Amino acid sequence: MPEPETRTVQLEGGRRLDRALALAWPDLSRSRLQALIRDGCVSLDGTVARDPALKAPGLAALALPSAAPAEPQGEAIALAVVHEDEALIVIDKPAGLVVHPAAGHESGTLVNALIAHCGESLSGIGGVKRPGIVHRLDKDTSGLLVVAKTDRAHKGLSAQFADHGRSGPLERAYLALVWGVPEPARGTIDRAIARSPQNREKMAVVRDGRGRQARTHYAVEEVYGAAPVASLVRCRLETGRTHQIRVHLAEIGHPLLGDATYGAGFKSKAARLSPAAREALAELGRQALHAAVLGLEHPLTGEFLRFESAPPPDLQRLIEALRGGERA
User: Fold this and answer.
1) Which stretches in the chain have pLDDT values below 50?
2) Under the phi-then-psi rule, with left for phi > 0, alpha for psi from -120 to 50, and beta for the rest, what region is 152?
């Protein structure tokens, strides 16, 4: 077993122990430091200090244990890596890949793939060699996703995703094919979202005060058909709720093509598509949603990174088929 790393810092007092140590060692999250303090890994002037709220001066010493082995196990799964450095990795996730292990998906996930791909470059999130998931994409949504490789990067990225670009640099844009054409062509959907009381597997728009605030900005980019049957919409998230785009667009009467959960009542509209578009939609077999743009501030260097991802082949085939069917 490797020897713990030892760190020391002189504290002046007047500030909570966990806050003071977080300022001294920004590569460790405050929650991680709180756990280390409670586990007896921190001492003040040679006396173990187990209270994160303690305010006292003295020489603080931290015995930082090595990160525990990764859980779950790594698996050799091919990944489309868009960018990677010592702090983070950006993946272009294919449709069908689950992000995190859960009931029914204990293996074969993006996390399993990242553990195998990153190996020893994972320095430990919360004391475990694992990738730091700061946002997710639904299993059947494709596109760009960033993952932290270190505790410090995890803390910085988490703060950006909590802000959702309202005051910070985070940028996220999605391409969605929807039934019909939203009116107006550019607008904002500001409706709270919560777990559906009728079906716990679904999310639903609820009255303000009963759910969590959710705001989606959208703009129609293309319209298909002389009597428009579908359109391509670009969505920008100001919040990050589960199924947010799918729920919001369905709420205004324009669910995603191929969305069996939120657009089941629109299946008959497929009869209005051209034969080529009907075939492409059947082959898609999922909701027509793609995370096309991801911009963020690098949590270590402060550099702004921006990535774009073209629609994957299955979605592009559907777009081209819709364009061929009397694009308006």
Assistant:
1) 1, 327-328
2) alpha
